[in-house]
C-alpha cells in the first residue's frame, strides 16, 4: 500500500499524482493534517506495537511506500489574535510538529519519496555544498549593512535579494501578498537605512535562460524557460502566463547531472525541484533545490508527465 501525506485541500502537485494512482488502480491511503482533527474519523497510533489504526484498520503492515508532500497545514481553531489565544495556537502547532515527527519515526523503515524532515532545506547550506562539489554558484552574502551591499553591488554589477527561508502567502482580509526575488538597483540600495534586518543578497547572473529540473531518484525531467526579450526578470513566477516566456524541453549536460546527483545524495534528498541558470558563455549556475517545489507548469507545458512518473515510482516501490 502507498501512504500519501499532504494537504487537505487542493494541491496542484499532489492531486494529479492521485489521479494517476486512481488510473492505475493502486492501493493507497491519503492522510492530511486536517484528517487528524475530523470528528468523523477515528485514528490511533500504538508506537510500541507499531500499529497505525484508521477507522478500525491497522494500515502499518500494509504500507510499503510513503510520499510526503507539503504535509504541513497548521491548526486554526482560535480566531482571536490576542494573548492568550495566540499562545494556544503556538502550543497546538508545537503539539502537531511533535506528533508528525513521531509519525515519521514510526514509518522510518518504509520507502520514502522525500525525507519529511527536509521539507524546508537550508538554501545557504545547500549552495555551499553545491560549490564544494564543483557546481558554479552565484556570489552570495548575508548582511545588515548598506555599505556592504554597496560594495557587493560594485563587485558584481547586479544584485538580487530573496528570502533565506521559504516564504508563502500573507493574507489580510480579501488581499493576498507574496514575496519574490527582486533586483536591487543602485537607487534601491541607496535608499536602504545604514543598518537593517539581515538579508540575503546574491550576484545576478547574466543568464541566457533558466532551467527547471525535477529530480526523481536519479532521473531528471528538465525544462528551459526562454524569453523573447534579452531582459530576464529576477523571478519568472511573475511572468508564467506572459507570451514572451516559452517553455522548452531540455537536456542538461551529463557532467552537470552527475554533480547534481551527488549533491542530492549529500543533502539526503531523492526528489526535488532544482533551479539553474545558463549564462551567455555556456556556464551553468546552481541556484537552489526545493524539496516540495512545484513542477506542474513545466510538466504540463512540455509533456514531461512528472506526475505520472511520481505515481509509477510509488507503485514500483510498493513491494
Beta-strand percentage range: 25-35%
Overall mean pLDDT stands at: 89
Number of separate structural domains: 3
Compressed to H and E, one letter per element, the order equals EHEEEEEHEHEHEEEEHEEEEHEEHH
What's the main sheet like? Answer: 5 strands, antiparallel
How far is the first residue's CA from the last residue's CA? 8 Å
Shape: globular
Q: Tell me, what is the CATH class of the largest domain?
A: Alpha Beta
Q: What is CATH's topology name of the largest domain?
A: Rossmann fold
Number of helices: 8
Strand numbers in spatial order across the main sheet: 16-15-14-17-18
Task: Tell me roughly what share of residues is in helical segments.
Answer: 25-40%
Rg over CA atoms, rounded to whole Å, is: 22 Å
Q: Which runs of at least 5 residues are low in confidence (pLDDT < 50)?
A: none
The CATH architecture of the largest domain can be given as 3-Layer(aba) Sandwich
Helix and strand composition category: alpha+beta
Task: Give the beta-strand count.
Answer: 18
List the keywords.
four-stranded parallel beta sheet, 319 residues, alpha+beta, D-amino Acid Aminotransferase, Chain A, domain 1, Rossmann fold, 28% helix
Task: Give a brief outline of the structure.
With 319 residues, this protein is α+β, with helices and mostly antiparallel strands.
Amino acid at each position: 500500500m502507498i501512504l500519501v501525506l499532504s494537504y487537505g485541500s487542493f494541491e496542484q502537485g499532489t492531486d494529479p499524482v492521485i489521479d494517476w494512482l486512481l488510473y492505475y488502480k493502486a492501493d493507497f491511503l491519503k492522510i492530511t493534517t486536517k484528517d487528524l482533527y475530523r470528528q468523523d474519523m477515528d485514528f490511533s497510533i500504538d508506537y510500541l506495537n507499531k500499529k497505525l489504526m484508521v477507522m478500525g484498520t491497522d494500515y502499518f503492515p500494509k504500507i510499503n511506500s510513503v510520499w510526503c508532500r507539503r504535509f504541513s497545514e497548521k491548526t486554526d481553531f482560535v480566531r482571536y489574535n490576542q494573548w492568550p489565544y495566540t499562545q494556544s495556537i503556538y502550543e497546538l502547532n508545537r503539539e502537531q510538529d511533535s506528533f508528525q515527527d513521531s509519525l515519521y519515526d514510526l514509518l522510518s523503515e518504509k520507502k520514502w519519496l522525500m525525507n519529511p524532515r527536509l521539507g524546508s532545506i537550508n538554501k545557504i547550506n545547500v549552495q555551499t555544498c553545491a560549490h564544494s562539489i564543483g557546481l558554479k554558484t552565484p556570489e552570495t552574502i548575508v548582511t545588515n549593512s548598506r555599505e556592504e551591499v554597496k560594495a557587493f553591488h560594485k563587485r558584481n554589477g547586479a544584485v538580487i535579494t530573496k528570502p533565506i527561508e521559504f516564504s508563502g502567502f500573507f493574507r489580510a482580509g480579501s488581499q493576498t501578498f507574496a514575496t519574490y526575488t527582486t533586483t536591487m538597483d543602485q537607487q534601491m540600495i541607496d535608499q536602504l537605512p545604514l543598518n537593517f534586518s539581515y538579508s540575503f543578497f546574491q550576484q545576478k547572473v547574466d543568464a541566457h535562460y533558466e532551467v527547471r529540473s525535477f529530480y526523481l531518484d536519479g532521473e531528471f525531467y528538465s525544462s528551459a524557460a526562454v524569453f523573447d526579450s534579452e531582459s530576464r526578470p529576477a523571478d519568472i513566477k511573475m511572468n508564467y502566463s506572459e507570451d514572451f516566456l516559452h517553455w522548452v524541453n531540455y537536456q542538461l549536460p551529463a557532467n552537470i547531472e552527475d554533480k547534481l546527483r551527488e549533491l542530492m545524495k549529500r543533502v539526503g534528498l531523492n526528489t526535488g525541484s532544482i533551479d539553474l541558470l545558463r549564462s551567455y558563455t555556456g556556464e551553468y549556475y546552481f541556484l537552489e533545490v526545493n524539496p516540495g517545489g512545484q513542477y506542474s507548469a513545466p510538466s504540463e507545458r512540455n509533456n514531461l508527465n512528472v506526475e505520472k512518473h511520481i505515481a509509477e515510482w510509488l507503485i514500483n516501490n510498493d513491494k
